[in-house]
Amino acid sequence: MAERLTPEQVQKLRLLALNDAVVTSKTMSGTLDEFHGLDGRTSALVRIAALVSMAPDSSSYRWAMDQAMAAGVGDEEVFSALIAIAPIIGVARLNEGLAHLMEALELEVLEG
To answer: What pTM, to 2 d.p., does this model score?
Structure first.
């Protein structure tokens, strides 16, 4: 059976949903200790997938890829994660995100 959230964790989620200043600050700084169930590699892949779904500028991807590489994540794993989210985010968002990610990795989108 899957692990359930503790009552304290549920309360933190409620406070986060209500935009509580303390809980939001801890969440955004990565110091909300109640939720550290992902290892560094998985966390890095999730962050990159989230970035692709949002399609920010290339500097965000460079930071995320540096974090992923520091955690031991390889390029093939990153692209496998992106293929896994493709049905969720759609082709247009995937293409836009991949273009930014490839730019951050200094890869040419088009062979020239």
So the answer is: 0.72
